[in-house]
Model the fold of this input.
Amino acid sequence: MDNIKQVPIIIGIAVLFTLFITLSIEAFYTSPKYEDFCNPQTQAKLYREPYPVKIPPTNCTDIYSTDQRVQSCYNQRGNPIFDYDSKGCQIYKECDYCQRDYDDARKIHDRNIFLITAPLGLITIIFGLYFGIDFIGSGFMFGGIATLFYGTVRYFGEANKYLRVLIILIELLIVVWIGYKKLWNKQKNKK
Done:
């Protein structure tokens, strides 16, 4: 009966520890906000209605294929902003890089979250392995694994394919090591 009572404590420690770590990180190292990079009114101009003339534009050149500035803007991960001339044809106005700048800041932030949570998760796992009270130690181990998982998920999409494989391999080896150290050795010692 005592083992059944320990399960909620293990789950509670794991969940609350993970929440504590993630909320603490967000409190002191906040995520970049889209609004800090992109002005909503400027973004609305990107998708505004076409030139308001009653007669459709005629003899317009395809600005997407003829204006090098448009292609250069796209190549630099920007969004071209257009205006309209007196005939109602699009003309290139400027390149808006706010989305690119926001994405770059978010990628750096997510990488840093991983670099913070990975060591914290590992330290917590090791702490849980050696904590004197078994079920509390198990809660911290699960919390460490969940914290490690959280950081991995945040960064995983931005890591290159080889780094992804390496990260998952290391995390898999850690979980196998925990299983061996905590469970297998304990069963072996009982025999």
In short: DSSP finds eight helices and two strands in the chain. The longest strand covers residues 90-96.
